[in-house]
Amino acid sequence: MRPHSLSIALAILLTGMTTAGLSGPAAAQAACGAPGRSASGAGTSGWPVATPDDVGLDPQSLCTLARKLDAAKEDNVHAVLIARHGKLVFERYFTGSDSHWGQPEKDVAFGPEVPHDLRSITKSVVSLLVGIAVGKGWITSIDQPVLALLPAHADLSTPQKQGITLRHLLTMSPGLAWSEQLPYSDLRNSENGMDMARDPCRYVLEQPVAHDPGTVWTYSGGTTGLLACVLHQATGKPLDELARETLFEPLGISKVEWARYPQTGEPVAASGLRLLPADTLKFGQLVLDKGAWNGRQIVPAQWIEMATAPQINASGAMFYGFQFWLGRSLVDHRPLEWIAGFGYGGQRLFIVPSLDLTMMVQAGRYGGQDEGGFAAAILNRYVLPAAKP
Questions:
Q1: Which pLDDT band, with edges at 50, 70 and 90, does 22 fall under?
Q2: Model confidence over 230-246: pLDDT tens digits?
Q3: What is the C-alpha separation between 376 and 206, in angstroms, rounded?
Q4: Whose CA is closest to 52, among 39, 38, 66?
């Protein structure tokens, strides 16, 4: 949903089978996080699979990671998946406390066929849809004024707001006053105001101008909400239908849930998407392959390059692209740059172009002070050091 106790079933393997029927190398591989395979040997999650050695990953590091995950009950991690060179090499699921968007927490036994909230990783998916719309000519330029693209809200136009473009929405720099720093349980949080408004897009555009557009980055789910309104206006299709036709079906994604605003029925663009973990990982591979999937160009390569390039300074030492985070890790005294989608509760999709590697972590760490720290530790302590250049 927003940016920002695991009782592990030790006897359950990735495919839902117990270790009782396995022995020798098969049991050892399963204990080290080897992906589930069907009777034909193909991956049960729809990915081609490989051993760590096949793709240049240290198998011992991944075995150590699997043991750490099994022991980390307090971290409430639900799933960890790792792919390199387009093949799934690590797939681990757990049971833990989770909260579906806007619903009370409950224990869930996660697995390859159990959807999980993406929360704000949904924003990165919306960026891909904008890229598709630009590539098809439905949107002619990201430097178009937003209010010119939303005629129903033309009455909100002011000289300052006329300068807000799609580019500013993509980089979270429209200059509109917005605060998501308060807890999401606080009604003063701007995203709560948007969620409860009769017209969420009008609510965002009604906010006063605090900065000149393009000068200050402010985390804002409102920017993604406005992007969805522009997409609907430009294509004539609601966000979920557009996503199904142009992105999900080409990626082979069929199990999709999307939280909706009760007052409008529209999908919640900033945080409402819910997918299978292995399907979410596909977005990482799509970025690695410059918008192509199985030889088919789905998102224009030029868009991927722009969306994942530094566009503005974000919080901390990170940059921000077009609804993607950009950071780096230090491994053996050398920096490795990565691209990421971040979601509330510890949802993290990491993409490391120089290693041709992507990793998905899903968790139920909602409201924690360091909700994404565990995912960063997995990446920095186990996965990146395991990768041979």
A1: very low
A2: 999 999 999 999 999 99
A3: 37
A4: 66
Check pLDDT > 70 for residue 192: yes
Which one, of 95, 118, 117, 92, lies nearest residue 106 by Cα? 95
pLDDT of res. 5: 31
Q: In angstroms, rounded to a whole number, what is the distance separating the alpha carbons of residues 183 and 346?
A: 15
Arithmetic mean of pLDDT, 174-190: 88
Mean pLDDT of the chain: 90
Quick one: three-class SS letters along the chain?
CCCCCCCCCCCECCCCCEHHHCCHHHHHHHHCCCCCECCCCCECCCCCECCCHHHCECHHHHHHHHHHHHHCHHHCEEEEEEEECCEEEEEEECEEEECCCCCCCEEEECCCCCCEECCCHHHHHHHHHHHHHHHCCCCCCCCCEHHHHCHHHHHHCCCCHHHCEHHHHHCCCCCECCCCCCCCCCCCCHHHHHHHCCCHHHHHHHCCECCCCCCCCCCCHHHHHHHHHHHHHHHCCCHHHHHHHHHHCCCCCCCEEECECCCCCCECCCCCEEECHHHHHHHHHHHHCCCEECCEECCCHHHHHHHCCCCEECCCCCEECCCCEEEEEEECCEEEEEEEEEECCCEEEEEEHHHCEEEEEEECCCCCCCCCHHHHHHHHHHHHHHECC
Q: Residue 7 corresponds to which tokens in the numbers above?
A: 């009782």
| Cα-Cα end-to-end distance for the chain | 35
Q: Which residues contact 292 (CB under 8 A, 6 or more apart)?
A: 286, 298, 301
Question: How many angstroms separate the CA atoms of 194 and 180, rounded?
Answer: 11
